[in-house]
Amino acid sequence: MNVYRHTVAADGEWHTLHLTGMIIHVATRHEHMVELWSIHHDDRPTMKRRLRVYRTGQYVPEGCQIVGSAITPTGMYVWHLIEGCPEDTGEDDGAGCGRIICTFCAPLGPKR
Fold this sequence. Notes:
- The protein is mostly beta strands.
- The chain is built from no helices and seven strands.
- A four-stranded antiparallel sheet has the order 2-5-7-6, with no helix packed on it. The chain has a three-stranded antiparallel sheet with strand order 1-4-3, with no helix packed on it.
- Strand 6 (65-71) and strand 7 (78-84) form a beta hairpin.
- It starts with a strand and ends in a 28-residue tail after the last strand.
C-alpha cells in the first residue's frame, strides 16, 4: 500500500481519475487547484472516479457526493471537491446517473 497525491483543476470541468483505494485527504496549496491524497494498491483494479471542483455557493447537481473542502492559501476561495457517478458519460449536465443507489457506486454507500 502507498499514498499517492493527485490534483484536480478548479476549472469548472469534470476530471476522471483512476484510483485503487479510498480518498483520504483533500487540501490545496494553489489558488486554482485542489489536491487529494488516496490509498494506492498495486494489486487492485482501478476504479474510475469523476471529480469536479465547485466554489462556495455554486449549484451542485443532485446525485453528487462531497469528497472534501479546502481553503486556498490566501483565503480567497473555499473549494469543494465533488464526485459524480462514474456511469455518467458526461454528455448531459454531468450530474451523475441520478439513481438513489448506483449499481456501480453501491460499494461506496448510498448517495447523499
